[in-house]
Write a structure and sequence with these properties.
Structural class: alpha+beta
Strand content: 15-25%
Shape: elongated
Number of helices: 3
Mean pLDDT: 84
Number of strands: 5
Low-confidence stretches: none
Strand order of the largest sheet: 2-1-5-4-3
Radius of gyration: 20 Å
Largest sheet: 5 strands, antiparallel
């Protein structure tokens, strides 16, 4: 009985050690993502480099959140329509048209889609003044990709909303600068 008890205690100890490692890994990933988003958020609120520069910084950060090989796409709503147009990409993402149902992100919901050819996609809506103006998409390849966890999605939401506000501010700044120049 003592031998079985010792075996069970050792098994529990190994399980606890494994859980602790998983928690530490998740914390490290989250800390890294928050650090990245903080840096980009500072850049988004202080840069005068223009909308395109901001968009490139956003997709670079989105692709790096969570580690592993990922692609990212920043797609903006085209006028008042329900169509999305890719304005910036990082990596080699598949075309947005390869993902049926992606337009549903314009209703304000975060989407997780699977595609047997391209693996998985997470699309986070970008809000500006309570209106969805676009989406921030990350695509994880089927082979060698690290799955997107809920904490990564939360970080992507923060990044997407900060980016929407910063891009609108940059657009207004450029517009004002052009008016002053004229």
């Amino acid at each position: 009985e003592l031998g079985r008890l010792a075996t069970n205690v050792n098994r529990m100890r190994d399980s606890i050690a494994d859980y602790v490692r998983q928690i530490e890994d998740a914390r490290e990933r989250l800390d890294h993502a928050v650090e990245q988003v903080s840096g980009v958020s500072r850049a988004l609120t202080t840069t005068t480099a223009g909308v395109q520069t901001l968009q490139e910084a956003v997709v670079r950060t989105a692709a790096s959140i969570g580690g592993g090989p990922r692609s990212a796409v920043l797609a903006m709503r085209e006028g008042d329509t329900d169509s999305l147009v890719a304005v910036a990409t990082e990596g080699d993402p598949p075309a947005l048209s390869d993902w049926p149902g992606l337009g549903e992100v314009l209703s304000g919901e975060t989407l997780r889609l699977e595609n047997p050819q391209h693996a998985s996609l997470v699309a986070v809506p970008m809000f500006y003044q309570d209106r969805v103006v676009g989406t921030l998409v990350t695509i994880t390849p089927a082979e060698g990709g690290v799955p997107v966890v809920d904490s990564d999605v939360d970080v992507l939401r923060v990044l997407a909303n900060n980016a929407a506000i910063a891009m609108e501010n940059a657009r207004l700044f450029e517009q004002e600068r052009e008016t002053v120049r004229r």
